[in-house]
Every structure is written in C-alpha cells, then in structure tokens.
Design a protein that fits this description.
The structure is a single chain. By secondary structure, this protein is α+β, with helices and mostly antiparallel strands. The chain has a single domain (5-523), classed as Creatine Kinase, Chain A, domain 2, CATH 3.30.590. The protein contains 19 helices and 14 strands. Strands 1, 2, 3, 4, 5, 11 and 12 form a 7-stranded antiparallel beta sheet that branches. The protein has a 3-stranded antiparallel beta sheet with strand order 6-8-7, with helices on one face. Strand 2 (59-61) and strand 3 form a beta hairpin. Helix 7 packs across helix 12 (347-362). The protein is globular, with a radius of gyration of 23 Å.
Length: 525
C-alpha cells in the first residue's frame, strides 16, 4: 500500500483507477423467521418446494427449521443483486402457505423455547453433523439466542484494483500474499470503527419480554405496552450480551494481525476444551448432545463481526481454504435486519458499506494490541447499549472523542471515495452518504431511533408493529409476478437439490460414530 489514505485515493483518481474501483463484487445472506399469521413461530418443517436446505445454494435454513436463509450469487452491480434477492423472496413467500417472514432481528413471541424446531438436514452423515452441531448450540446457549436473525454482506474488490495497488506498493510479498494481508488490514480498520454500523444500522433496541425467560440481566430495561422491553438509547440488542455472543470465546484471543496469526489462532481455538461445555456431555447413552466439548465445536461457532473467507472445496474447512489460497473476500456480520426493507437490507446501506469498506482497505492499518482490543470492545458496547445518548463519548487512540465528532470525521473521509465511485450520470453514492449522515445530528433518524419511535411514544408493543410490516411485505411480494421461466428455474433448483441430498444419503455407508471420528481427526493430531 502507499503511505497514506490520500495518496491511495490520488493514485486511483483516473479512468483505470475508477474502473478498478467499480468492480466490487457483493453477495447477501439474509435470515428470516417463518411465523404464522398470528405472530407465533412456525412449527412446520422446511417446505419441499424450497428444496433441500442441505444442498440448495440459494435457499437454506440456519439454526432452526423455521429460520430461513436466502443467499444470493455474487454480483458486481447493486440493482442486479437486489433483483435476485427479491426474486428469491417472492418464490419463497409463494411456497410457505399462509406464513410470513418476521422482518426484524429479535425473535417473535415464543411460548415454549424447548419446542423451537432444530434444522433437519436428512440422514446423510454430513446432514446429521449439521443438525447435531445445532443441537450442541441449543445445549450451550439456548434455542432463543439461536433464532436471532441477521444479514451478512460479502465483499471483495476487483482483480484489476488489486493489481494496481500491488504495483504501487512495491511490496516484497507475492500478489496472493499482498491481497490476504491487505484484506486483514481492512479487517483491522473495520474492527476499530465497526461501531458505526450498529449506530446507523442497528435496528434492535427492543425485544419481546419472553426472550428473557431464564436469563439474568442487569440492563435497565424500560417497558412499553404489555411486554416489550427496550433501552432508550440502545441500537442493537442483537449484538449485546443478550444476543448472538459467546463469553466462552473471550479467552480465544484470535489475532487479525496477519493471515498466519489468524490461522494459528483458529487452529488453537478449535482444540481448546471447555469445562462448562464438558458438563453437558457429548454422547449420553445413545444420544449425542454436541459434536465435542471444546469452546468451538467447529470453526463456524466463532462469533466474529467480520470474517476473512475463501470459497471452500468439498469437505474443506474454512481455515483450510484460507491456508490453501489466501483471502478471497470478507464477510460483514454486524448487520441487524432492516425492518424498513422487505429484504432486510437496502441499496443505500450497501452503497454505504461499499464506501466504508473501501475506506478501511485504502487506509494504512497498524497491528492491533491488547489495549486496542479493550478500547474497541468498550466502544462497541457503549454504542450497542447507549449509542444515541446525547454527548456520548468514545475512546480513540486513548483520547476521548464525542460520537458525533468521530462520525463526522469518518463521513468526511468517505466523500472523496464517493467522488470516485459516482460519475456524471449518477450520484447514488453521495445520495447514500447524505441519507445516513442525517443520523449524526438527528439520532432519531437512525434505524434504531426510527424503530423506537414506532411504538414507544404511544406505549404500544413491538410485536403488532412488526406483524403489520410482515403482512405488508407478504402482500407486496405475493403480488410480484415471476416469469414462467423464473418459476421453472427455482423449481428445478429445488428438485436438483433434493436429488443431491438423496444421493448423499445413499452414499453415506459409514457409521456416524466413525464419521465423526474421521471428521475430527485433527483433534487427535
């Protein structure tokens, strides 16, 4: 990399640089609970019309049979990305009977958490492993936490941009090594400033009181309506200790200072035993309760707000894929479901993410110390629980700074990137910046501020508002017509995926006990 953010921008301020910047490749993974028309969690199995959740590339399930996940292919233009996501939503809505998609991150009212249906992937060994992993999550953290929904954003830049940056860097690394190390630089900068995402995009300042059954919390919740709990200045309870976190992982110390350190940390992490999880038992009688008693059953259990990724080959673990070919893209995981979009995320959010991630990439990134880790963690917790509080201060390189000042500084850095991304025909990146910049002076215009204003001002409950949105989106999507060819294509994908699952089940002749022994061979090495 060149020495400064400004030098990097100047080097790209030409036709070839702008063309290279425009080649961003993006993918979206959106999670959504299926709920009945009365707002209760669906207990129906995954619809056969949607195909096999094990082998379908675009429609699957996450933790629960009731928790759908829609996965787009990779696109290099935003309208095509959202058109694809829309079509998948339309097809799914038309094939889940009268059910609707819950359009927020925190779950609906769940009367009996022990009856939340764990996702089923068939009788093949790989399918049984996926289900057992989720059974383990149930025993470890409870089913309620596991049905929290989110949106993941996959991001990579063009090969043309990498070659330009590599040429200008005069680096002694190979191009592949340079790409991986640069992505890790992006990750470090993202982690330093990721609080901006829950501040602007956090949309879970409230939850149904039923979510706290059996949980101890000293958070000073206020009550709205009959059973909605909220924090007046919170942004994302999904990302709080009540949400998708794992305190056992605080001891792992995974480093993002280089690919080698990250891989070594993951290698160590998946071997660390947990006394707490050992008390659960692994196989009790004839029934498995979890895959193993380590802090991480598998790598996917590492709850990181951003991940370095490479598309894995068949049977390849995520870290093995990274070790084989380096970082291919990054996965942003700190996004609540946006209730104001039927797809859980908006085009303006994606444009902001483009700018923010490019800023993180093009800015020099020092290694992260233990002191940095504490500062980042403290800043994030403040934003999650009290981000919209007036005059809130964070710590920046050991110095205090008001949230509004830091936000303004970041937006000033994003504007010249928007200059390069927009052209004479469009100002879409500047428009996205202007939209989200309103959140600096008016915290109520952030997603969390808007959500609270929907029901707290009238002392109403969260649930009825969410259900009205769910029915609204269900009606809008059901009125959208897919072409005959598009419907045929989705049906064919579903049929092919079911046949692929069936074939895997036919080929699974090894006893499951032996399969697990082979799968976790590295724990014995």
């Amino acid at each position: 990399m060149l020495k400064t953010f400004g030098q990097n921008l100047a080097a790209l301020d030409n036709p070839s640089g702008k063309r290279a910047l425009s080649g961003i490749r993006r993918g979206i993974e959106r999670e959504a609970l299926r709920v009945k028309s009365d707002g209760q969690l669906s207990s129906k199995p995954h619809s056969k019309a949607l195909g096999s959740a094990l082998t379908h590339s675009r429609i699957t399930t996450d933790y629960s049979e009731s928790l759908l996940e829609f996965i787009t292919p990779v696109f290099d233009d935003i309208p095509s990305l959202f058109n694809d996501l829309k079509k998948t939503h339309v097809y799914a809505i038309n094939n889940i009977d009268s059910e609707v998609l819950w359009p927020v991150s925190m779950p609906c009212f769940v009367k009996e958490p022990n009856k939340i249906p764990v996702a089923q992937y068939g009788t093949s060994n790989v399918g049984q492993l996926k289900t057992l992993y989720r059974v383990g999550l149930t025993h470890r953290y409870g089913a309620q936490m596991q049905i929290i929904s989110g949106v993941h954003f996959n991001f990579s830049v063009s090969q043309e941009l990498w070659e330009l940056l590599y040429k200008q860097s005069n680096s002694d690394l190979t191009l592949e090594e340079f790409i991986s190390e640069s992505y890790f630089g992006l990750i470090r900068n993202y982690r330093r400033q990721m609080w901006i995402l829950p501040y602007l995009f956090g949309a879970s300042p409230a939850l149904c009181g039923s979510f706290l059954k059996g949980l101890d919390t000293d958070l000073p919740f206020k009550k709205s309506g009959l059973g909605t709990l909220y924090l007046p200045y919170a942004t994302s309870l999904r990302m709080s200790d009540l949400g998708y976190t794992n305190k056992e992982q605080d001891t792992l110390g995974i480093s993002y200072n280089s690919l080698a350190e990250y891989l070594e940390g993951m290698k160590r992490a998946i071997r660390l035993p947990s006394a707490k999880f050992a008390d659960i038992g692994v196989k009790v009688g004839d029934d498995y309760r979890q895959l193993n008693a380590n802090i991480l059953q598998i790598e996917n259990e590492f709850y990181a707000p951003i991940r370095p990724k490479r598309v894995a080959q068949a049977g390849e673990k995520p870290s093995d894929a990274l070790a084989r070919g380096g970082v291919e893209y990054i996965e942003v995981r700190a996004l609540d479901v946006n209730p104001y979009s039927p797809f859980g995320i908006s085009e303006d959010q994606v444009r902001f993410l483009d700018l923010f991630l490019l800023y993180c990439l093009l800015t020099p990134s020092k290694h992260i110390s233990d002191e940095d880790e504490k500062e980042m963690s403290d800043n994030l917790e403040k934003i999650i629980l009290q981000g919209r509080q007036p005059n809130l201060q964070l710590s920046h390189h050991g110095e205090t700074i008001e949230v509004t000042q830091w936000l303004s500084d970041i937006f000033e850095q994003l504007k010249p990137i928007a200059d390069l991304m927009d052209d004479e025909k469009t100002a879409s990146y500047h428009e996205a910046l202007a939209l989200w910049q309103k959140g600096i002076d008016d915290p109520d215009s952030t997603l969390s501020g808007k959500v609270l204003n929907e029901f707290v001002s009238n002392n109403e409950d969260h649930g009825p508002w969410v259900m009205s949105l769910a029915h609204q989106y269900q009606q809008e999507l059901s009125q959208t017509q897919l072409s005959d060819d598009e419907v045929a294509d989705y049906r064919q994908q579903a049929e092919v995926s079911l046949k692929q699952q069936q074939q895997l089940e036919i080929e699974s002749v090894q006893l499951f006990d032996d399969y697990l022994q082979d799968y976790f061979h590295y724990l014995r090495d």
